[in-house]
């Protein structure tokens, strides 16, 4: 078979801010390496203007020094915080841009001093004193143990609690900063439109606008400046663009035309950029209308048409990516592409782009204070900041609020001394997602089994795994059914695992980056276990675990209750146990819709009217809705009544805010939290209208028997859409819907308004 | 809920040929209706120039006469070739463009005289003598009984026999012409990229280039001129564009960007237009990047950006469609949209477009000879042409060649006196597709059960339905298993039905226009029947029926043989029986790939490299290939050896033809037909390359023990692709693969060539 064309699949970061207009000099040989650098060089002066410092520093740099900034040293720390010095030196020779933590099993107290020493040394030993920047993934928190282990992104989004999420982002930021990690590869705003993708658990959900709201809060918080004016931690918004790739595959093709991309896939970015400026942007692994995202000028610099090319050599790929705006790769190939150019490829030809790329990388290092701060490990911060009481408390709250009660026929909450059989292969697993500092080989008493045993007492809990996660052998389903009959109530904990690459369960994964689960059925024999337990007649509570939707048609609907915990952190098991016994009233709401059947796509609520088979038309399997549980759905132990919304007026200008008020009454017998969700639809538009779009939400805590007025502000400027690259908010009629889920039956209204 | 915006969903036809540069006068009131028409008016002169005749006729027409040409009278004939005269007159008042046959259950001998009389009368009674044009669907032949009943489009494509298909197209044309039907709504070149779509059976298959080859042959043949220079039958290429809609839904959104649309969805049109000019084009029901296809200027006139709008009134929708190039609707709304304009909509504003539309419609009526020929029913032609010996023979041949043997472990062919149990609800059904003149209420001895009983003898055939098609009740699976055990071999005939709206099985449909089958599993309890029979241990032959792929993983793989008959015509049952006993050696090849599981998409062979989960990456369910049976696959009762291809040279110019020669040897014991399939791949290109593309094929009949040299010509100009609207054939390296299916293991090569 032929040699395939290649392009950069590895992580690459391009800066969002505009390119510097006049590039610095284009030194093309090693001459500058001999340039004497004066003691009082401008770039060394913390009081000098930032852009002057960057330009000055660049003027002293020779070619190899420049291209070395565009790569990094990744994964250098093995377990036990050790590293191979010879290998490190070999990589660090031409890769001076970034350094990243390596093994996720290292403890912060051990790894941070080692990494900090390397960074300090990199600064000291670099001819011009340019240090590494410490960059890392941070989906569940820093990828070092001894830090707070938060749930993954999708899970936290299910809380629908923007102030709480902002608090968590601040905690996360402070733990990262304490570890010396000043650049993170978050937030991931990809619109989760394909339930088959293995990365849904890393995303916020299926609503473009909501993803932007949460990401803007995250970025604004994480990039906050410290008292010295240094950015605390830089963020990376990603993956530009992704969300509806062919087959749900991470590197699959994205077919979308311009209208689709601007209105759906790129909308979170647009929403974010109206509020905050992320320090960097990561292209997706996908192709966009046939052009690899890393070589696509359109999404990064917005110049058209794309002139980049897929390539047959590393040099070509590097140059094409560079020309498209890519400025850094988190691996060792990008600088290598520019090390030895040949043929009609010349240093002169790429020097301008290299200077621009390096300027912005240096600019960020200055902004983060890396030239001006002491970069040694801060042991005080490590002790005081990591796992602080406030951080753990915020973590516990958001974990509690993120668990979604999908179904409850009244079996929940359980009484505090209920005897239960805890069944299924996920009961004794901490299912974090791929980017968490945790291994299931460690016994941390953090699993649901640990928590429910502590809660109900070991005499009341009998655990039988019944089946393995993915294996189709060695089942003990009969034993599980017997335990269920003996206990009288079964809690079946099933799903899919997405864990780190060093986790003991890594080979059991069907979910996570690089994975695709075309089927949303349960892997292995888990479905058989569920069927056997339910068909035995024992009242069954299904607990789902995994960063995805599952197919819950059929026998699962004969259960008494269904809860989903998604990808959890250290409090997931305990929070779930507290919900089961009614100590916590569940308040999570879905941010992804659950299809009725695996094959039924699309399921997302915000589809074009013609995308779902029309009522009356024949669909096999026969469905009235594509979803079984819609976006926004989540039950409580109490009942709420939402009043019709009242608006401050009915006609608005293009820049107005619509002030909407809803009275939420807790009509049940326990206190609880409810999410007021506001959707809208434009009556007539040049494009095929989405059936509805979320435009506001607010979570409110309402004591039993009380009523609370909730105000939600809709920004008229956000009601618009993109047509052929132009944003427009049309004059005319709009409709506002309010309710507690996206399902039509849950929404009151519409209230008609007019935009002038 | 709010009023939805509306747009024309009904069938609409726009002409492909360029717009007439200077429109005729824009008479805006009824004044022209008073214009005296001289006896020697230019348009009445058959010897005058065509364009002069059109312009002259238009100059006498008033507004209502013009807009009346843009609509038609549809479905006027009920069963028994009768019609409601009052209803007809009411519709015909403002709809003088087209007339179509109505009930598919009418016999040509009865209906054609009635329809012809209406057409003759329409010409006589029209102030200017403009007749209706008789237009109709023709997937399986004319939609009148007493004509030859061919298989549906997908089925005939499976024969991979271009000369034979051309013969069939000529037969089809002559039957249409004999019926007075001079305009057909074929060919349907939609690229069958979503197996969930209910219309796959009407399409050719998943390869854009192949669809274009077959459609070009069809159009060239059907539009052939008669001895008087009149076009015999006009064609309609459709649906521009469709093939990868969201959800597989007929009206769903198409996301494709420009590169995707030109290289995949529009490629059949481009291929066709390089060879022939279809008389008309039908936009799809879908939205394209958010714009309804009927209001999208881009695909029809190729001007960008689209400025059309979805609409809130019929007037708006009509005007927007008209502006986008739509010129005729096969229903009664389009003229109505222009009958009474109001507000800022004026007759003056749309008159130019109406004149253009009407000019082209009249032009076609002249080209078809409708002004100059006798339009009375031709009873001689009805007797001599319909169901002629040649037509039936061509039909039988293409039906035989279209049946695909997917699997055979040696059980086939059966001996001529084999005892069999014929099971399943499709055994006694003629499964034609939606657009066929047939009903299963009629006993025509055309089913497979009829044929196999006649072939093996009634003593050897025991039929038990076992289950209904879709019902989940009233099964007799036990009886079916008993019959299987008694016979020793089971033939299980299962699938999905797509039949006409007047068929007795219409309520059993899960396939066909307007239907979506997200699941490719068997409807109802058919899967249970199959499992029970196979698990009983009786050797089982699965016969599939339906215009779609089915999920054949699992128990189906424990069968001894699998055949697919798709949507058949009158010879389908007999052709299958002949194959089962070895009287015919099967030679059909798939033009659609069969997924391993329903959920696994995409399955088409010509995907981007990154669209399938990479080998080594984890996919659930676990697969090495997305397909179970690939495009091009089909078995024979003999064995063939294909030599490596020899080429006439290795370097070619941009307009050259590559002459490729392959020796096909029949190494088995029976005569057989083999399809030489030629694929190619460009080594490096600006766009993400498809893994391979079909570029040539040839079917050859090889006697047992013989070898035949097969020449296939590849046109270098067809190796190119579209980038941002520009077509290009790159200089550089290409690879040629030859084999008997698209699967890598079936292909020899690659042979490297160079394009200068």
TrEMBL record, chains A, B:
<feature type="domain" description="Fibronectin type III-like">
    <location>
        <begin position="674"/>
        <end position="742"/>
    </location>
</feature>
<dbReference type="InterPro" id="IPR001764">
    <property type="entry name" value="Glyco_hydro_3_N"/>
</dbReference>
<dbReference type="InterPro" id="IPR017853">
    <property type="entry name" value="GH"/>
</dbReference>
<dbReference type="GO" id="GO:0008422">
    <property type="term" value="F:beta-glucosidase activity"/>
</dbReference>
<protein>
    <recommendedName>
        <fullName>beta-glucosidase</fullName>
        <ecNumber>3.2.1.21</ecNumber>
    </recommendedName>
</protein>
<keyword id="KW-0378">Hydrolase</keyword>
<keyword id="KW-0732">Signal</keyword>
<comment type="pathway">
    <text>Glycan metabolism; cellulose degradation.</text>
</comment>
<keyword id="KW-0119">Carbohydrate metabolism</keyword>
<dbReference type="GO" id="GO:0000272">
    <property type="term" value="P:polysaccharide catabolic process"/>
</dbReference>
<dbReference type="InterPro" id="IPR013783">
    <property type="entry name" value="Ig-like_fold"/>
</dbReference>
<keyword id="KW-0325">Glycoprotein</keyword>
<dbReference type="Pfam" id="PF01915">
    <property type="entry name" value="Glyco_hydro_3_C"/>
</dbReference>
<dbReference type="InterPro" id="IPR050288">
    <property type="entry name" value="Cellulose_deg_GH3"/>
</dbReference>
<dbReference type="Pfam" id="PF14310">
    <property type="entry name" value="Fn3-like"/>
</dbReference>
<keyword id="KW-0326">Glycosidase</keyword>
<comment type="similarity">
    <text>Belongs to the glycosyl hydrolase 3 family.</text>
</comment>
<keyword id="KW-0624">Polysaccharide degradation</keyword>
<dbReference type="InterPro" id="IPR002772">
    <property type="entry name" value="Glyco_hydro_3_C"/>
</dbReference>
<dbReference type="InterPro" id="IPR026891">
    <property type="entry name" value="Fn3-like"/>
</dbReference>
<dbReference type="Pfam" id="PF00933">
    <property type="entry name" value="Glyco_hydro_3"/>
</dbReference>
<feature type="signal peptide">
    <location>
        <begin position="1"/>
        <end position="25"/>
    </location>
</feature>
<dbReference type="InterPro" id="IPR036881">
    <property type="entry name" value="Glyco_hydro_3_C_sf"/>
</dbReference>
<dbReference type="InterPro" id="IPR036962">
    <property type="entry name" value="Glyco_hydro_3_N_sf"/>
</dbReference>
């Amino acid at each position: 078979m032929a040699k395939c064309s290649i392009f950069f699949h590895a992580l690459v970061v391009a800066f969002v801010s505009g390119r510097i207009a006049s590039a610095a000099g284009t030194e093309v040989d090693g001459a500058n390496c001999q340039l004497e650098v004066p003691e009082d060089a401008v770039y060394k002066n913390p009081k000098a203007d930032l852009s002057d410092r960057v330009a000055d520093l660049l003027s002293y740099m020779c070619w190899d020094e420049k291209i070395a900034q565009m790569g990094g040293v990744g994964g250098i720390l093995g377990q036990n915080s050790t590293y191979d010095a010879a290998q490190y030196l070999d990589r660090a020779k031409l890769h001076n841009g970034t350094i990243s933590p390596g093994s996720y099993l290292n403890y912060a107290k051990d790894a941070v001093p080692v990494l900090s020493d390397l960074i300090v040394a990199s600064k000291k030993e670099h001819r011009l004193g340019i240090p590494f920047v410490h960059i890392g993934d941070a989906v569940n928190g820093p990828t070092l143990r001894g830090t707070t282990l938060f749930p993954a992104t999708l899970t936290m989004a299910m809380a629908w609690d923007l102030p709480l999420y902002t608090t968590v982002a601040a905690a996360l930021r402070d733990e990262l900063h304490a570890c010396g990690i000043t650049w993170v590869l978050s937030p991931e705003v990809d619109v989760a439109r394909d339930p088959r993708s293995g990365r849904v658990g890393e995303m916020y959900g299926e609503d473009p606008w909501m993803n932007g709201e949460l990401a803007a809060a995250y970025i604004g918080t994480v990039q906050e400046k410290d008292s010295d004016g240094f950015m605390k931690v830089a963020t990376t918004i990603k993956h530009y663009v992704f969300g509806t790739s062919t087959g749900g595959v991470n590197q699959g093709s994205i077919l979308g035309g311009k209208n689709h991309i601007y209105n759906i896939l790129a909308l979170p970015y647009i929403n974010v950029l109206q509020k905050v400026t992320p320090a960097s942007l990561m292209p997706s692994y996908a192709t966009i209308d046939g052009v690899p995202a890393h070589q696509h000028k359109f999404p990064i610099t917005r110049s058209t048409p794309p002139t980049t090319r897929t390539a047959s050599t590393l040099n070509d790929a590097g140059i094409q990516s560079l020309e498209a705006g890519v400025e850094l790769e988190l691996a060792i190939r990008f600088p290598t592409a520019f090390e030895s150019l040949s043929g009609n490829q010349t240093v002169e030809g790429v020097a301008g782009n290299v200077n621009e790329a390096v300027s912005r990388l240096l600019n960020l290092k200055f902004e983060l204070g890396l030239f001006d701060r002491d970069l040694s490990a801060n042991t005080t911060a490590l002790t005081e900041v990591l796992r602080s009481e406030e951080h753990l408390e915020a973590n516990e709250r958001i974990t509690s609020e993120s668990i979604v009660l999908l179904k409850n026929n009244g079996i929940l909450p359980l009484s505090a001394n209920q005897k239960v059989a805890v069944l299924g292969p996920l009961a004794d697993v901490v299912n974090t997602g791929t980017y968490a500092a945790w291994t299931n080989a460690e016994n941390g008493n953090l699993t649901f089994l640990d928590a429910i045993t502590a809660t109900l007492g070991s005499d009341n809990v009998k655990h039988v795994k019944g089946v393995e996660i993915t294996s189709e052998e060695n089942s003990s389903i009969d034993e599980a059914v017997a335990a269920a009959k003996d206990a009288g109530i079964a809690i079946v904990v099933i799903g899919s695992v997405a864990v780190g690459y060093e986790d003991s369960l890594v080979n059991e994964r069907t979910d996570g980056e690089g994975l695709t689960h075309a089927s949303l059925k349960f892997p292995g024999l888990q479905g058989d276990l569920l069927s056997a337990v339910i068909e035995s007649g024992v009242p069954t509570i299904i607990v789902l675990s995994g960063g995805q939707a599952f197919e819950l048609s059929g026998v699962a609907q004969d259960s008494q209750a269904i809860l989903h915990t998604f990808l959890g952190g250290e409090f997931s098991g305990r929070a779930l146990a507290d919900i089961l016994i009614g100590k916590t009233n569940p308040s999570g709401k879905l941010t992804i819709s659950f299809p009725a059947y695996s094959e039924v796509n699309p399921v997302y609520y915000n589809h074009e009217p013609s995308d779902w088979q029309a009522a009356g038309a024949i669909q096999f399997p026969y469905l009235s809705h594509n979803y079984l549980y819609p976006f926004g759905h989540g039950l409580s132990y109490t009942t709420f009544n939402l009043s019709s919304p009242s608006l401050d007026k009915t006609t608005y200008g293009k820049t107005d805010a619509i002030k909407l008020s809803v009275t939420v009454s807790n009509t049940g017998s326990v206190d609880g939290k409810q999410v007021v969700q506001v959707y809208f639809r434009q009556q007539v538009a040049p494009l095929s209208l989405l059936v509805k779009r979320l435009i506001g939400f607010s979570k409110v805590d309402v004591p039993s028997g009380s009523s609370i007025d909730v105000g939600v502000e809709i920004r008229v400027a956000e009601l618009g859409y993109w047509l052929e690259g132009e944003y427009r908010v049309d004059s005319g009629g709009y409709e506002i819907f309010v309710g507690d889920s996206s399902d039509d039956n849950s929404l009151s209204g519409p209230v008609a308004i007019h935009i002038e």
